[in-house]
Amino acid sequence: MRLYLASTSPARLALLRAAGIEPVLINPDVDEARVVAETEAAAGAALAPRDLVLLLARAKAEAAASVLLAEPLNGLLLGGDSVFVLDEVIYGKPHTAEAARERWERQRGRTGTLYSGHWLIELTAGVPSDAVGAVAVAEVTFADDLDDAELDAYIATGEPLYVAGAFTIDSLGAPFITSIVGDPSTVVGLSLPTLRRLVRGLGHEWPTLWNRPGALSL
Length: 218
Hints:
It is an enzyme of class 3 (hydrolase). The chain has helices spanning 10-18, 32-43, 49-68, 97-107, 148-156, 184-188, 192-201, 213-216, and strands at 3-6, 24-25, 75-86, 89-91, 111-124, 127-142, 177-181. The protein is of the alpha/beta class.
């Protein structure tokens, strides 16, 4: 079973590869701000974190599916999205050093919640035939002894500028995280246990996705 990934995230790709899966990458090319604005305008209210990540995960998966319509492919297509919530404020990627610094000033020594949305579409001859979605949640606690020099050095690497919540647990930010309650892969941006449940929900077994040499030789 081939997995198509509607994402350009290096972290999601590395996570799947470590789990024995080499996905086919597709750039979903979604205007996230427009999708959210239109949905909130129609609803007359701001989206809750769970609804937000599931909406964007679905939008990415469906945009990628439209790219594949011209090809008679069979497989599973995954879209994902993540946000971090602290003090009931939703944070995506900070994009600037100033925004990243401001967020870390608020979150060090505290606990926030990471929401990761998943939308999985089954493709039959290139046409979507079924779909399922789910949201995974994990609580993240940050070190309370992170000093300004460490924080400045971390932000200077550029890493926190392009990840939800301005931190990682699988790279340079890992030493600044003291605990995670929930599935750790959720914080990376793709919950493997959640994806497995979705795969099984569409009638397939997880091992059928293994296609990397290391997994196949087990």
